[in-house]
């Protein structure tokens, strides 16, 4: 079942995804609320190389310090490889006023198999500092969750740094909780050691599933 859902989702073009019943109203609302911003959907095959590099640059600007302090360390090459994954999908936001203007925000996501369940995994949601505080991050997450709901996925997941207090508060407000797959504390020389990241998840449900 998980494999079928993943394959079905991966067959969809960006245009098909943008026109599903839960996503289209959210896209229309975004364009009305932010007329100066341009929002576009891409796959890893349709996104341009400059845009992929711009995505990496935004991650570096926002999170490099946290990566360097973590057990993972920072590697822009590794982040770029992640964005080249065949199943990766993107939603990009830039200014309408500048032709091929700079990337201002993006979210990257894909449908993955998590313990034999197809789930929506959000890999990145990154905003330029000038776009924060306007509800854009919430709308981007809402779009990703709507894509999941329209493809009958029942869970959205993501990974966050424990030290990223702003992100942790943001995801908590959206209804994300620590997932059962998140790493547990471990004992090391008699002391409890906690992971520097947490896996969060949110249960999703279609309106017609609630009837």
Strand tally? 9
Which CATH architecture? 3-Layer(aba) Sandwich
> Roughly what percent helix?
25-40%
* Uncertain parts: none
Distance between the termini: 23 Å
Give the biggest sheet.
7 strands, mixed
- CATH fold-type name: Aminopeptidase
How do the strands line up in the largest sheet? 1-2-3-4-5-9-6
Whole-number mean pLDDT: 93
- CATH homologous superfamily? Gcn5-related N-acetyltransferase (GNAT)
CATH class: Alpha Beta
Shape: globular
Output the number of helix runs: 7
- What is the string of helix and strand elements? HHHEHHEEEHEHEEEE
Domains (count): 1
Strand content: 25-35%
Structural category is alpha+beta
Integer-rounded radius of gyration:
17 Å
Domain N-acetyltransferase: 53-205
Keywords: Acyltransferase, Cytoplasm, Nucleus, Transferase
Subcellular location: Cytoplasm; Nucleus
EC number: 2.3.1.257
Describe this structure in words.
By secondary structure, this protein is of the alpha+beta class. It has a single domain (2-209), classed as Gcn5-related N-acetyltransferase (GNAT) (Aminopeptidase, 3-Layer(aba) Sandwich), CATH 3.40.630.30. Helix content is 37%, strand content 27%. It is built from seven helices and nine strands; from the N terminus they run H-H-H-E-H-H-E-E-E-H-E-H-E-E-E-E. The chain has helices at 2-11, 14-18, 23-33, 49-69, 76-83, 136-150, 165-173, and strands at 37-43, 89-95, 103-113, 118-127, 155-161, 177-178, 186-188, 191-193, 197-203. It has a seven-stranded mixed β-sheet with strand order 1-2-3-4-5-9-6, with helices on both faces. Strand 7 (186-188) and strand 8 (191-193) form a beta hairpin. Helix 3 (23-33) runs antiparallel to helix 6 and helix 4 packs across helix 5. The radius of gyration is 17 Å and the shape is globular. The protein starts with a helix and ends in an 8-residue tail after the last strand.
